[in-house]
Amino acid sequence: MDAGDFAKRLSHTIEALRDLRGLKQFDLSDAMGIDQSNYSRAAAGHRPFNTAELQIAADTLKISVLQIIAISYADLLINEELVPLSKLLQQFVSQVEGRPQNEPLTEQEIEYLIKKLRQTNSDFGNKI
Fold first, then answer.
1. Which residue among 16, 37, 54, 82 is buried most deeply as judged by most CB within 10 Å?
2. Dist CA 124 CA 54 (whole Å)
3. SS3 48
4. Residue 78, exposed/middle/buried by CB under 10 A (0-12, 13-18, 19+)?
5. Strand, helix or coil at 116?
6. Mean pLDDT taken over the chain
7. What is the number of domains present in the chain?
């Protein structure tokens, strides 16, 4: 994976976590002290988040930088293809409706995510 691909994964992870926390792009751009259009470029993967922005994003999202990086870097073997964990997180976020905002995943949401993983690939699900 080259640096550009990883920067895009990092952006996708931050955006998925932002959605999960019920925050708007403005909330993160304001916290970072940058204008929203500059944030949007980073969120879309057109420019990387710098280290200060990444730390502010992590603090605002109530997660560590290391966790953001781990989610961005991790791949899952699903249907014999490697799928970025950040993509799976984005798909999960788009499917969860009516969850409390700014709260960690509930046990039911985690169970739902595991169930979806098992449905996607029974071999993978047996390892969870």
1. 16
2. 31
3. coil
4. middle
5. helix
6. 76
7. 1
* pTM listed for this prediction: 0.65
For residue 38, give both structure tokens. 């500059």
CB of 12 closer than 8 Å to CB of 90: yes
Predicted local confidence at residue 124, as pLDDT: 40
Tens digits of residue pLDDT in 54-73: 999 999 998 888 888 888 87
Token pair of 52 as six digits: 């200060």
Q: What is the CATH number of the domain that holds 120?
A: 1.10.260.40
Which contiguous run of DSSP H or E holds residue 84?
Answer: strand 81-84
CB 72 within 8 A of CB 6: yes
Q: What token pair was written down for 33?
A: 């002290």
Instruction: Report helix, strand or coil for 121.
Output: coil
Cβ atoms of 117 and 42 closer than 8 Å = no
